[in-house]
Design brief:
There is one protein chain. This protein is α/β, with parallel strands linked by helices. It folds into 2 domains: about 290 residues, no CATH class; about 60 residues, no CATH class. It is built from 19 helices and 10 strands. Strands 4-3-10-7-8-9 form a 6-stranded mixed beta sheet, sandwiched between helices. A two-stranded antiparallel sheet has the order 1-2. Strands 5-6 form a two-stranded antiparallel ribbon. β1 and β2 form a beta hairpin. The mean pLDDT is about 90.
């Protein structure tokens, strides 16, 4: 009898261990529906057919393990259950570099650091970058093109009252303060959206930042776009299509990007959204005679919302959005993804009427990424710029290859986490390795 009971327990244990694997074989589509996680969709079996040497080098086995880990039957469910446990038990969210504040407000840590001046890059670096921007502004103005710097608000300072106390201290000098002050002293065209949002906060009828979103709310986005259009009209002495709304719908379930971090939290069961958010029913003025001021926008992810609204097509005369001075939206080629480095920079700049650089305060340490440095060299020493671009072309090609291939991107993502460096830096290191350049 004891032996029979023992056998039953053995079989239960065996089935418990084997069931996920068996289910993985039986289920036809095992790709997990998880947001913000790089999934390797390339089955190495197809690669092995073309290159048998992968078997003997051990590369196939490593890739197969990685593929199986991404596609096993219960990955999505277990990830969500694990994230739910950390959320409920420890008040933690399993989203890289994001934390919870009070009342379920989510924050990017970098925006908290920005609010208190913990990421200040120093007066000299700020001044040097802005002096170059001034040269670019003057060079473009002679060609009838205006340069505009826009400092967007970040959630850290705007919702500072909900930040966890462990991050709080007396604020020191911030990048935003330095960028704004030096820009104004140098006579650079600047729109201080961050300061404007702080003034609006006490009287705004609707939230300008949502609990579960990283960016400004949809309502805040509409306010920002309307303000930017008005500012460009005065700066460039032009008349542009207006954005307007007569109707606003107020709901307690986030729409659009107002819960983008919540999606990335990949929870088993989402918490209740107890914040009333406003969604204007926007209308763009349809006047082709006004939609002739072409605006190129170089920005961080804050400009994605206006892109989804249709600002580029309806107000900016089809002007492109250069995401972190890298990805081009909309993509100019129907056959391949084109990145900014593949363009003729001078021709691309001068095909526009206004160049707008918009970055939120948490990204000011990398303001414009390399655009200001590149444009400065382009207009002050074009030969040097052309030679440098040609030297770096091979590395940039490998960087693009890494971004487009999930297998390679996943390796770079792991490296960035292990070395605690930005993903772009990890990609560059891997690209240099692929190019045969010693680091």
């Amino acid at each position: 009898m004891k032996k029979k009971k023992y056998n039953i327990f053995v079989w239960i244990a065996f089935i418990s261990i084997a069931f996920p694997m068996l289910a993985g074989f039986l289920k036809t589509d095992n790709k997990p529906d998880l947001t913000g996680i790089v999934i390797n969709n390339v089955n190495p079996d197809s690669l092995l057919k073309k290159d048998k040497s992968m078997w003997f080098s051990g590369e196939y086995q490593a890739l197969k393990d990685d593929y199986n880990n991404d596609h096993w039957a219960f990955k999505e469910k277990f990830v969500r259950m694990n994230n739910q446990f950390y959320f409920e038990a420890f008040n933690q969210i399993r989203v890289n570099s994001f934390v919870l504040g009070t009342d379920n407000y989510v924050y990017s840590e970098s925006y908290i650091f920005s609010a208190f001046g913990d990421d200040f890059i120093g007066e000299e670096r700020v001044l040097t970058k802005l002096q170059k921007a001034k040269v670019i502004q003057d060079s473009l103005k002679r060609k009838g093109i205006d340069l505009l710097l826009v400092f967007a608000p970040g959630k850290g300072e705007h919702c500072i009252e909900h930040i966890d106390n462990k991050y709080k201290h007396n604020p020191s000098r911030t990048n935003y303060q330095a960028f704004l002050e030096h820009s104004q002293k140098l006579g650079i065209n600047v729109l201080d959206l961050k300061g404007y949002f702080q003034k609006l906060k006490p009287t705004s009828p609707y939230p300008l930042f949502p609990k579960f979103g990283h960016h400004w709310s949809y309502y805040g986005e509409c306010i920002a776009v309307d303000t930017i259009i008005g500012f460009i009209e005065k700066l460039h002495h032009c008349d542009m299509p207006d954005i307007a709304w007569n109707k606003i719908e107020v709901v307690d379930s986030a729409r659009s990007r107002d819960a983008d971090v919540l999606k990335s939290m990949n929870l088993y069961k989402n918490p209740k959204q107890n914040m009333k958010l406003a969604y204007p029913d926007i209308l763009f003025e349809q006047d082709s005679t006004k939609n002739k001021t072409r605006v190129l926008t170089i920005s961080d992810s804050y400009w994605y919302g206006p892109v989804y609204m249709g600002v580029g097509q309806n107000c900016f005369s089809g002007g492109q959005f250069w995401y972190y001075y890298n990805k081009i939206i909309p993509n100019p080629s129907p056959t391949e993804k084109i990145e900014v480095w593949q363009l003729d920079l001078k021709e691309s700049i001068e095909s526009n009427d206004v160049i707008m650089i918009l970055y939120s305060d948490g990204n000011l340490p990398n303001f414009s990424n390399a655009f200001i440095d590149d444009a400065y060299e382009l207009y002050t020493n074009p030969k040097s710029y052309a030679a440098r671009v040609e030297r770096n072309r091979n590395i940039r090609q490998f960087e693009k290859q890494i971004r487009e291939k999930p297998i390679l991107l996943k390796k770079s993502t792991r490296k960035s986490e292990e070395l605690q460096i930005p993903l772009d830096s990890a990609i560059k290191l891997d690209a240099m390795k692929l190019a045969g350049i010693s680091i």
